[in-house]
Structure formats: C-alpha cells, structure tokens
C-alpha cells in the first residue's frame, strides 16, 4: 500500500500530439481515485503510464517513496485489471492467478494458499481448474480481479473493467469491486467513461478533457461545485442545464420575454452562463418563469421534461408522483443552487 | 433447429462428382496401381512382368542402401523442419517488434516465397559453386574443404541450407500473423506479471502460437519429405550415386532411371503408409495437447 504522486507527468507522442498535459496529483494511501472523461481524453494513457506500459515523456511518477519512471511494469508492484480481462487463454484459472507470484519466486505452497484465498473471496472455488474460455463474462472479470489481488500489490489499476459486462452485472460488480477495495485498503486508480461509475465508486474523481485535468475532487465536490462547463455537462445524467444570459442592469435576460429571477454575479461583463441541475428546478410557481415542455421522458422513478426556456434547451426532473404534461407551464428556479460560468473560458465564477 | 438439406440424392452426388473424380483419377487410381505393381517384378525392357509377392518389400528391408537413404531422409527432414521453423520464428518475433518501416521489412523477408524449388536449387548451385561460390569460399575460410556434388556431407549441408532458406518465408508469414493475433492486452498483462522477456515468450507467447506452430510442423515435414524434390534434383546434378538423396528422390531414381518399377512402387507404398501414420499421429496425439483459443 502506498501513496501515488504524479508530478507534472506529461505524455507527448513522436508526432507531436500531447495526449496528457502536465498533470500533478497526489493520491493518498488507500484511496480509490477515478479518472473519468470522454474517449480520447487521455485517461487510459495516464493509467498506462502509471502501469509502465507507456513511457512518461516528462515529469516524475512515484509509487510510495520511489520514483518509478524507469522501472519495468513487473517491478512497480502493481496489478492491473484490463477492459477485456486479458486472461491467459491457455492457463487454468488457478494458473492465471498464480502466474505473477510464480515469477517472483513464491513457493508452490504460498501460491496455492493465496490462490485459494482469492478464490474464496471471489467465489471462484469451483472453477480453479477451468480455462477462461469455459467461464462467463462475470466469472472472467472475477478471475482478472483475483489475479490482481493474489499479488498483494501496492497499487491496483483498473482500465474500464466493467464496460464489457451487461448493465445488471455491471452494477453488481461495481459494488463488489468497491467493497473489495475498501476491505483490502489498496490504493487504486480506476479509469472509466461512465460518470455513474465514477460518482458511485470514487473517493476522489479526476475529470479529464482533451488531455487536461479539468477538476479534482470528491464526488460531492465535483457534482455540487463543477469547476467548468465541461465538468458540469459531463457529470450528472441528465446533464446540468447551461443557459446563456445577457446581464442587463443586474438582471439575467434569456431573451426579450424571459428574465430569470436570479441576481447576476457581480463584476461580470454583459454575458454569463447560468447552470441549473434538472432536479433542482421545480414545477409550479408564480408564473414569472414559463417553461415550454415538448417531451416527457418516463424513467420509472422519475420523469424528465425536455423543452425550451426563453428559447434555449432546458430539462427538468420531477418525481414519479408529480403530474407531468407537455405545454407551457410555470417553474420555480432554485435561487440558492445556481452555478455561474464564464461564457468565454467556461470556468466557474 | 431446421436442417438444411437436399430433397434428392442425385444433386449432392452430381455436385461432389468433379472433386471425387479428381481424387479418384489422380490419387486413388495411381495409388492402387502402385500397390499392384509393387507385387510384380517388371522386365527392364518392358516385355512383361512376373508376380513375386512381397519380394520387393523384403528386398527393401534387407537393402542397406535403402536403410541409408531412409536414415538420411529422417535426419534431413528433422533438420529442415527444425531450422526453417526456428529461424522463421526468430525472424517473426523480431519483425513483430519493428515499428518503423515494418511493411518493407516484412515484404523483403517474404520475397523468397515466390521462388520455385528448382530455381532455389539453381541459386544454391551458384552459391555453393566449387570455383567461385561465396558459400563454398566461406566454408573453406572456416577450414572445411567444401565440395558440392562430390562430398556426401557437403551436398547434404547445401541441400539442408537451400531447403531451409526456401521454406523460411512461408513459416515467417504464418508466425507473424499468429503473433499479431495475440491480444495486445494479454501481452501487457504478461509484462506486469513477468519481468523476464524470455519467460514471457515461453510462458505466454509461444503457447498461444502453438496452433500455428502445429499447423506449420505438418506443412514443413511434408515439405521436407516431398516438396524439396526440385532442390535435390538440381543440387545432386543427376548423380545420385555418391550423393545423399531422400526417399522420394530414390523412388524417382529407381523407377525411372533404374527401370525397376516394382521396387519403386514398393517404396511409394511405404511412403504412403508413412504419411498416413504421420498424419494420424499428429492429429491424434499432438493436437490434443494444443490449446485452441
């Protein structure tokens, strides 16, 4: 177990493309950190640099107290779970799990004991002699987990480990991985593009966009105080509403007819982006703000109403007990939960 | 499940007929003829034949010359198969790691594939030429009085080298595509599990190449046994007397040069049985141990 420190770690490819811009993060011992972002944002590259599968162009990476930039993956004392499991197809489940230990010179008895223990934790006891091809997707996922935990690593790396599973199994494995990680207390870095996985599993989230760290924070911080319009739009489903408003004598105008009953932030120019979470907005009100509902999306537990507010796209979420219909209706905006962003740079004000 | 099928018996038979006829005319008929003529002793001038039973076979078994050729064939096949597989594997593993100019590199390695065996033999003749062959000169610098066509071991060496050289590209192509079909993430998992590159190769890469290697083993044994005929024919310069030849070449020499059709047929039959046994052995014993993913 160890803390992981990235000090201005950067990745540039020979063709000049900067996949990861200088990134400094300190991951405390025992935490699970989720790297999240859309595809191509550099999250996998960053993970693979930590694993040693990609060279680090600049900066220093330490696991524990050692700088490991020049260490081979096998010498970094890490374990990695791959997206497609990457099990050795010609080895039995037991051999798959014990292979790393065998190469570190562990005795046969020690390997057996650790494999048995991992199999017990992961309910794989009956499958130790099987080949990966004889297992279901979920079982293969467990074997990949088992291969990681028998090594007793200082650091777990997960590269979108659940994206090949169906939705139900994904939810189940999500909880299992989180529970296992907390029980073992191993520092972990987890890559995903799924913001639900990021929110539910992480101690700390790192949101990446186009090779740049947009925000680092706990799930609550990320959700409640998104640092940029990118984070605001990426984290949360449905995403936060972002309305472009003109500041006119201290009032926020969406268009000629719609003025938001919200005080404009001080010291701004004449334009601002107003962010509102769909679940913070309520139906009903004094009629000062009118929402034209065009579509009602039924989700079971709640309903999403999509339409136009002052000519701009807007959504709000209501509980299943509330009546929802299309057409123009009054809404109430949460004055206390408004986010303001700079319209040019997208940063939080 | 619905079974797709023909409503009449005649249509499938008609569709299979061309293939069956080709097999019958070009394999079963000559094979049957060889079995039959192996029990006869033919007059060298074509004036008839006498039934001699299994005498042709017993002659072969007691013939020291035949035993010698059989032993040479065994060694020759083993050497050609081993070297053409191992060198090709080495080249494929190295070429797989090349990133810059990979395509031209691979194309160059595959070029020899297009050369016909007699042409390969002829190129061999030039390389091992007694007066100014570069290979001959190299061996002589190393202190070996290399004489192609006159010295048994020299000719044998040249035969093995040319046959291996000719077969490497085929093996290379198959090994390379086999290597490239191994998932990248499996190799990366091995990279994390094992710090030794040779350990990773023998524990992970090679077992995953085993289906390819098994297929190539059959192809290479068959190649060394039968398809090197053109190379041998060119290199021994039709002087099979004091030069090493393989069983297949001996069938040709005895039958068409020595006009001993009965003895030659008996040799063919023995070869057929050998190939049959080899095939059964390979598929029954080896394939069972190989993991197909």
Shape of chain B: globular
The CATH topology label of the largest domain in chain A is Rossmann fold
What characterizes the major β-sheet of chain B? 2 strands, antiparallel
Q: Strand share of the residues of chain B?
A: under 5%
Span between termini of chain A: 38 Å
CATH architecture of the largest domain in chain A: 3-Layer(aba) Sandwich
Q: Give the C-alpha Rg of chain B.
A: 24 Å
Q: Largest interface, counted with CB-CB under 8 A? A: A-B, 24 and 20 residues
- Mean pLDDT across the residues of chain B is 85
Radius of gyration of chain A equals 24 Å
Low-confidence stretches of chain A: none
Task: Provide the CATH top-level class of chain B.
Answer: Mainly Alpha
Question: What is the β-strand count of chain B?
Answer: 2
Main beta-sheet strand count, sense and barrel state of chain A: 6 strands, mixed
Classification by helices and strands of chain B: mainly alpha
CATH topology of chain B: MetI-like fold
Provide the succession of SSEs of chain B.
HEEHHHHHHHHHHH
Description:
The complex is a heterodimer of chains A (349) and B (293). With 349 residues, chain A is of the alpha+beta class. Chain A has two domains: 4-234, Rossmann fold; 241-341, OB fold (Dihydrolipoamide Acetyltransferase, E2P) (Beta Barrel). Chain A is 24% helix and 34% strand. Chain A has eight helices and 20 strands. In chain A, the strands form four sheets. A six-stranded mixed beta sheet of chain A has the order 6-7-8-3-9-10, sandwiched between helices. Chain A has a five-stranded antiparallel beta sheet with strand order 13-12-11-14-20. In chain A, strands 15-19-16-17-18 form a five-stranded antiparallel beta sheet, with no helix packed on it. In chain A, helix 2 runs parallel beside helix 4. Chain A is elongated. Chain B is mainly α. Chain B has one domain: MetI-like fold (Orthogonal Bundle), CATH 1.10.3720. Chain B has helices at 10-37, 55-62, 64-97, 102-110, 117-127, 134-141, 152-180, 184-193, 197-227, 229-235, 247-257, 261-289, and strands spanning 40-42, 49-51. Chain B has a two-stranded antiparallel ribbon with strand order 1-2. The longest helix of chain B is centred in the N-terminal third of the chain and has 34 residues, at 64-97. The mean pLDDT of chain B is 85. Chain A binds chain B through residues 51-53, 72-75, 78-80, 82-84, 86-90, 99-100, 103, 131, 133, 147, and chain B through 183, 185-186, 188-196, 199, 203-204, 207-208, 210, 291, 293.
């Amino acid at each position: 177990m160890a803390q992981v420190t990235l000090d201005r770690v950067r990745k540039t490819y020979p063709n000049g493309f900067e996949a990861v811009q200088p990134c400094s993060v300190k991951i405390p011992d025992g935490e699970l950190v989720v790297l999240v972002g859309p595809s191509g944002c550099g999250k996998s590259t960053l993970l693979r640099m930590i694993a040693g599968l990609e060279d680090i162009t600049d900066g220093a990476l330490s696991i524990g107290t050692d700088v490991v930039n020049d260490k081979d993956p096998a010498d970094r004392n890490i374990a990695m779970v791959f997206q497609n499991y990457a099990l050795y197809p010609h080895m039995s489940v037991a051999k798959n799990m014990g292979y790393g230990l065998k190469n570190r010179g562990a005795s046969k008895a020690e390997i057996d004991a650790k494999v048995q223990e991992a199999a017990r934790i992961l309910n794989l006891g009956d499958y130790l002699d099987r080949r990966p091809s004889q297992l279901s997707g979920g079982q293969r996922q467990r074997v990949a987990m088992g291969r990681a935990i028998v090594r007793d690593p200082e650091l777990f790396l997960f590269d979108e480990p659940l994206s090949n599973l169906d939705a139900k199994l994904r939810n189940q494995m999500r909880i299992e991985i989180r529970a296992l990680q907390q029980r073992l207390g191993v520092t972990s870095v987890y890559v995903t593009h799924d913001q639900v996985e990021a929110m539910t599993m992480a101690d700390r989230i790192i949101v990446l966009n186009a090779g740049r760290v947009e925000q680092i924070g706990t799930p609550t911080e990320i959700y409640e105080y998104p640092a940029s319009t990118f984070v605001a739009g990426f984290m949360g489903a449905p995403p936060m509403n972002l309305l472009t408003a003109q500041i006119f004598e201290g009032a926020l105008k969406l268009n000629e007819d719609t003025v938001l009953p919200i005080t404009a932030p001080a010291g701004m120019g004449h334009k601002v982006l107003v962010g509102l979470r769909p679940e913070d907005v309520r139906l009903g009100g004094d009629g000062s703000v009118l929402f034209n509902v065009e579509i009602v999306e039924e989700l079971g537990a709640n309903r999403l109403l999509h339409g136009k507010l002052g000519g701009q796209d807007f959504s709000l979420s209501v509980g299943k007990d509330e009546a929802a219909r299309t057409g123009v209706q009054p809404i109430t905006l949460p004055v206390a939960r408004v986010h303001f962003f700079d319209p040019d740079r997208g940063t939080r004000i | 499940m619905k079974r797709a099928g023909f409503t009449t018996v005649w249509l499938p038979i008609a569709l299979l007929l061309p293939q069956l006829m080709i097999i019958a005319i070009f394999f079963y008929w000559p094979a049957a003829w060889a079995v039959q003529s192996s029990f006869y002793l033919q007059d060298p001038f074509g004036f008839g034949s006498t039934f001699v039973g299994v005498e042709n076979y017993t002659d072969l078994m007691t013939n020291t010359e035949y035993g010698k050729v059989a032993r040479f064939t065994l060694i020759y096949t083993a050497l050609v198969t081993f070297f053409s597989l191992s060198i090709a594997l080495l080249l494929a593993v190295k070429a797989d790691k090349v990133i810059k100019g990979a395509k031209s590199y691979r194309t160059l390695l595959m070029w020899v594939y297009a050369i016909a065996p007699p042409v390969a033999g002829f190129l061999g003749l030039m390389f091992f030429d007694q007066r100014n062959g570069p290979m001959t000169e190299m061996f002589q610098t190393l202190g070996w009085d290399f004489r192609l066509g006159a010295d048994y071991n020299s000719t044998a060496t040249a035969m093995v080298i040319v046959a291996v050289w000719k077969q490497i590209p085929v093996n290379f192509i198959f090994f390379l595509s086999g290597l490239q079909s191994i998932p990248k993430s499996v190799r990366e998992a091995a990279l994390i599990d094992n710090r030794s590159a040779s350990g990773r190769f023998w524990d992970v890469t090679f077992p995953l190449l085993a289906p390819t290697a098994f297929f190539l083993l059959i192809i290479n044994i068959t190649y060394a046994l039968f398809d090197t005929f053109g190379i041998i024919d060119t290199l021994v310069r039709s002087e099979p007397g004091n030069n090493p030849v393989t069983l297949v070449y001996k069938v040709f020499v005895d039958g068409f040069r020595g006009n001993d059709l009965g003895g030659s047929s008996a040799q063919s039959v023995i070869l057929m049985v050998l190939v049959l046994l080899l095939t059964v052995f390979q598929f029954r014993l080896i394939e069972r141990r190989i993991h197909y993913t």
